[in-house]
From TrEMBL:
Any Pfam family hit: CbiQ
Transmembrane segments: 12-44, 56-73, 93-111, 223-240, 252-277
Keywords: Membrane, Transmembrane, Transmembrane helix
Localization per Swiss-Prot or TrEMBL: Membrane
Domain of life where this protein originates: Bacteria
UniProt KW Transmembrane helix keyword: yes
The protein, known as: Energy-coupling factor transport system permease protein
Originating species: Siminovitchia thermophila
Length: 304
């Protein structure tokens, strides 16, 4: 059950823009850690365990690669650990690499959950009237990758059924791959043209054209938007006061959470973990209802 996805598309879009903006433009370790853990937990709630483990294994390698690569190219910092090829490897450069890797992986997983929740129809609903052509192109681009993966698998299976992959020769595999790529290139161009022609035939983007939509603003959407605005105000105040300021060079700045900035860090925590809280709340309510249904079954008595 995806409780968070049931909110209005405008609320979802505002939330993801808000979260990505904060994640990209801060180097505070607490903010980045909350963003990474929140994105991982939410993505784990949305996807099967096998898919999550596969993705987390790949991006763990990406995380380690970025964290290790940064101190090899950046030699700033005052705490020298050792020398490699007469170049100093500093503690500050390693921590900065970990921070950049945390930011990148968090943005990737927030983007992956965004593509699952804010689908093409929701994106067209939000921007179809304001910028119809741009909205159509962006929605087609977002939908292109999963369609491309599905179609290339379909073409590969069809050609394998025809016996085109029986040889173990490297040349045969390369020719087969080129054949699949050529087929996919033709398919993608034709699909884009057909979709654009179909939308044009339906009058998409014409002035005065009415649109039917299943999305309606409800009371829970207003409450959600109000909570996000309140959190936004508190976090902006925290940035303005410098509570989230943090630097790594030439030395790592001292860090402390005190009563003066505690409310701002609580706002960050609630913002990053809000989807997880909503999903956990929905799952708990569903399990309670199921337990009540199983404990007190309806018994019917018949008189003979």
């Amino acid at each position: 059950m995806k409780s968070f996805s049931s909110f209005h598309p405008a609320v979802l879009f505002f939330y993801y823009v808000f979260v990505l903006f904060i994640t990209m433009f801060t180097l505070n370790p607490v903010v980045l850690a909350c963003s990474l853990i929140g994105s991982l937990l939410f993505f784990a709630m949305m996807t099967p365990l096998k898919t999550f483990c596969k993705d987390i294994g790949f991006y763990l390698l990406v995380f380690l690669l970025i964290a290790i690569t940064n101190p090899l190219f950046s030699h700033n910092g005052e705490t020298i650990l050792f020398f490699m090829n007469d170049n100093p490897v500093t503690f500050e450069a390693i921590i900065y690499g970990v921070a950049i890797a945390t930011m990148l992986v968090a943005i990737i997983f927030w983007s992956k959950s965004y593509s699952e929740l804010v689908t093409a129809d929701k994106f067209l609903y939000l921007f179809g009237k304001a910028v119809p052509k741009l909205a159509l192109v962006v929605s087609m681009a977002l939908r292109f990758i999963p369609l491309f993966k599905w179609q290339i698998k379909k073409v590969h299976q069809a050609q394998k059924t025809l016996g085109l992959y029986t040889s173990e020769s490297v040349t045969d595999k390369m020719l087969s791959g080129m054949r699949v790529f050529n087929s996919m290139l033709t398919w993608s161009l034709e699909n884009a043209i057909h979709q654009a022609d179909a939308m044009k035939a339906r009058g998409y983007g014409l002035k005065g054209r009415t649109n039917f939509s299943l999305f309606k603003v409800e009371a829970r959407d207003r409450w959600m938007f109000g909570i996000l605005v309140l959190l936004l105000i508190l976090i902006v105040i925290g940035f303005h006061k410098g509570d989230f300021a943090f630097h790594y060079y030439p030395f790592i700045s001292p860090f402390a959470i005190i009563s003066a900035n505690l409310i701002h860090y609580i706002s960050i925590f609630l913002l990053m973990f809000f989807p997880c809280i909503m999903e956990a709340k929905e799952n708990i309510q569903w399990r309670l209802l199921r337990s009540k249904m199983s404990v007190s079954p309806i018994r019917s008595k018949r008189k003979v």
